[in-house]
């Protein structure tokens, strides 16, 4: 009798647990290469001042079992977060991702939402020269809903790919209507293996992107070369955690398929591509999409500067700064 109960428990608990959370995924998926020389060449195409520094904002956070975002990564919980990146640039910043609203954060499972940080992010977005996204997930584009009243102004700064524009259209139709055409050649409807050779685009001085469909159709990685030569590759949700690359594991099947609709084979291919890149170019810093522990790791983290969450000065007080920026000869 006991054996039967034990067996039933194994079937009912252990098998689904293994299948949904432990199983390593498509480990034999072919590597999808990421061409750093090509990214460097694209980033050098547009003349002008390159970014000087990277700042980050943690809009929301939660502790999640390690195995959720790194298949088989154990039940020990890890700090994960929703991040927005600010590439501080003379003449106008580039912002990567838009954060999200409190309702969107709660619906996405992020229990800790910091309204003052999201307010600072909205200020970044409204003053930015350019807005980019690593994917069309709600935790990357959600914050745009607050900017719909100034849709015309904001839309001119958004440089998104076709899949991202479709998602923005569902979230904020008025904003999407004002958006320009998708960034070519990132507007590709090709299988991941073909995109690997074609989906590169220059976005700004020192900034380029490569389309990496898999986590979502609009997933892309953003390459940044600062003025002092430091290089970063923002991997987004393809590698949300440092261990996705160091362990060569994608997110769990539960997170990939039940919480999302990820093509796990393609994602695994890009993860292998990231690992190969890291071996060949050890000085290139990979930027993981949701790994708060890594982000705040003083020794091995990226050493980005945390954003100030001081409320932005009212428009009348910031006018001088704005005017000074517009007349900056470097723009
Ligand atoms: Zn995400």
How would you characterize this protein structure?
The chain has 331 residues and is an alpha/beta fold. The chain has one domain (31-307): Metallo-beta-lactamase, Chain A, CATH 3.60.15.10. Helix content is 39%, strand content 18%. It is built from 15 helices and 11 strands. The strands form 2 sheets. Strands 1, 2, 3, 4, 5 and 11 form a 6-stranded mixed β-sheet that branches. The protein has a 5-stranded mixed β-sheet with strand order 6-7-8-9-10, covered by helices on one side. Strand 2 and strand 3 (94-96) form a beta hairpin. The N and C termini lie far apart (78 Å). Residues 315-331 have low confidence and may be disordered. Bound molecules: zinc ion. Residues 137, 139-140, 237, 289-290 line the site of zinc ion.
Task: Jot down its keywords.
15 helices; 5-stranded mixed beta sheet; 6-stranded mixed beta sheet; disordered C terminus; binds zinc ion; 331 residues
